[in-house]
Amino acid sequence: MKTTIFSLAIMLALLTSCGKQSSDYKALKLQNDSLLQVKNQMETEVDDYFSAMNQIQENIEKIKGTEHVISLQPAGKELSDDKRKQIKEDMAYLAELLQTNKDELARLKTKLKSSSFKFTQLERNIARLTKSLEEETTRVNELQVQLGEKDIVIGKLGTTVSKQGKDLEVLATDVKAKETKISEQDATIHTAWYVFGTKKELKEQKIVTSDGLFSAKKILQRDFNKNYFVRIDARQTKSIPLYSTRAKILTTHPKSSYTLEKVNNNFVLQIVNPAEFWSVSKYLVIEVD
């Protein structure tokens, strides 16, 4: 009987011990599950923070690279329309990246503030990125101002070039007009006229006239026919064929400035000194048979 009672006591003690162990196990498991949940939540938040910050940092590097390319563009008329269009698109791209970064940083700050965890290093990183973004925003704004100033300079340059172009056109027209006038004056100064013909022909054209039978001949005295003369450049004409075996110069020309030579039995007037020959008269009248 004693043995039976002792056995029952041992069994009761064992059952009591097992029940207590089962309760402790459940409590530990619940605590472990809670810690795992907190750990997973923390890992998810940290992953989101670092992913966002990496993207922000990458965007900042893109902003710096685009700023550098734009700042290297020349200022002047050599900047093509395609380049100007590309710069405008790049500036819009910078503005978009800046706004994206600002929005993402604002989201991270709000999330970090409302988080149940304390991430001191993350707060520092976000503060660093915020400062870097503010610096890039300042640079982009300065670049925008510089581009605006370049546009003003280019506009003024274009106006100046256009005005200078018009001035040059006017000047070129004026120079051309003056050159034409000088050329005409030069041609007039060096223009001479000559005619040769028989006595009868010269009288008919009123080139040679006389008042009476015994009066002296008068050369080019009245309304003679100017159309009968040949117009020449006195500087270029050195030889005048007369197609006659007899020739007499009726107008006044220095004797040392010309010769009358026969070629194939016909006279040819050779002007050896044009300037001297035409110094007395710009008209040459020769009587031939």
Give an overview in words.
There is one protein chain. The protein has 289 residues and is α+β, with helices and mostly antiparallel strands. Among the domains are: 129 residues, Up-down Bundle (Methane Monooxygenase Hydroxylase, Chain G, domain 1), CATH 1.20.58; 70 residues, no CATH class. Strand 2 and strand 3 form a beta hairpin. Helix 1 runs antiparallel to helix 2 and helix 2 packs antiparallel against helix 3.
Give me a quick take on this structure.
The chain is an alpha+beta fold and 289 residues long. The protein is 64% helix and 13% strand. It is built from five helices and nine strands.
User: In CATH terms, what is the fold-level topology of one domain?
Assistant: Methane Monooxygenase Hydroxylase, Chain G, domain 1
Mean pLDDT: 76
Structural class: alpha+beta
Q: Give the CATH level 1 class of one domain.
A: Mainly Alpha
Number of strands: 9
Largest β-sheet summary: 4 strands, mixed
User: Helical amount among residues, as a percent range?
Assistant: 55-70%
- Percent strand equals 5-15%
Q: Strand order of the main beta sheet, please? A: 4-1-9-6
Large-scale geometry: rod-shaped
In N-to-C order, the SSE pattern is HHHEHEEEEEEEHE
Low-confidence stretches: none
Note the quaternary state here: single chain
> Rounded to an integer, what's the Rg over CA atoms?
57 Å
How many helices does DSSP assign?
5
CATH architecture call of one domain: Up-down Bundle
